[in-house]
Design brief:
This protein has two domains: 192 residues, Bordetella uptake gene, domain 1 (D-Maltodextrin-Binding Protein, domain 2); 117 residues, D-Maltodextrin-Binding Protein, domain 2 (3-Layer(aba) Sandwich), CATH 3.40.190. The protein is 37% helix and 21% strand. It is built from eleven helices and ten strands. Strands 1, 2, 3, 4, 5, 8, 9 and 10 form an eight-stranded mixed β-sheet that branches. The chain has a two-stranded parallel sheet with strand order 6-7. Bound molecules: aspartic acid.
Amino acid sequence: MADDRPLRTSLRIGAALTPLAMLAAACGGGGGDPADFPDDNIEIVVPFSAGGPTDTVTRMIAEPMSEELGVEIIIQNVEGAGGTVAAGQVAEADPDGYTVLMHHIGMSTAPTLYPDLPFDPLADFQTVGLVTEVPMTIIARKDFQPATLEELISYVEANEDKVTYANAGIGSASHLCGVLLQQAMGVKLQEVPYDGTAPAMADILGGQVDFMCDQTTNTTAQINEGKVKAYAVTTTERVESLPDLPTTAEGGLADVEVSVWHGLYVPADTPEEVVTKLTDALAAALEDQSVIDEMAKLGTAPVEPERVTPEEHTTVLEEQVASWGETLEGIEAE
Ligand code: ASP
């Protein structure tokens, strides 16, 4: 379960350093002339636990991005407060392109949910590009009584005080889906917060918590192997990798529709030339056939190539900050 400490775990991915980059790294390089970018390792900060869905998507793109940029990419998991600890850290990093944030829909909900948020998602970051949009699934421990979404609705309504719902912290995608579920069902559930949905999944598998919503990038294998019960996918269309799973609308919860968009960010004031190199590397990674195949197996796909731009990413972020602001009005993290 979550505690208040931000955690950091890291993994190095990718290209061996060129002699020039090794020299730069030895001299504490990076942050020099944008024309030389990158001449040092790049760190991508992931705001949730290793092994979870946001981390999985980051690892998928890190290797091809590393090859494209010719330097190593180091993934740092900095957990806590629904992703806001990691985002706050990157907002304060040097604006040189060497510290990159991977975040998801939670970037757009944080301003509404956290009244004392120490950063502004729109003013303190430069968008690099959208990565993917991932459907969520409503899943439960294998021996949870309800068998269908309709049964889940009546069971939760009748057992509101007993049922437990896992989330990855206030503002996480699992929390947002839980808000929509509770609004639609008219209930108030006991929510159990984790540092990410990798540990939440471990407790679903172990039977310590009843149910949750999570991205298909974390649930597809567990559903297809029958290790968890699955009720619905939260998109308007069914997902190819889970063809038997009905949509929330088919099961009577049309208002529970959420798709978890992910994007890369750097601190505001990062030179345009540097941002363009990162965007180009991201775009190349998303056109890599092995990334496309891996994503398809997990129920998702890269965003269309023409949408991998800072401008499109900013437009989506602005729209989402506004629309979640309305949906979440009156809800605040303590
Ligand atoms: N799926 C998580 C969420 O609910 C985050 C994660 O662990 O990647 O936002």
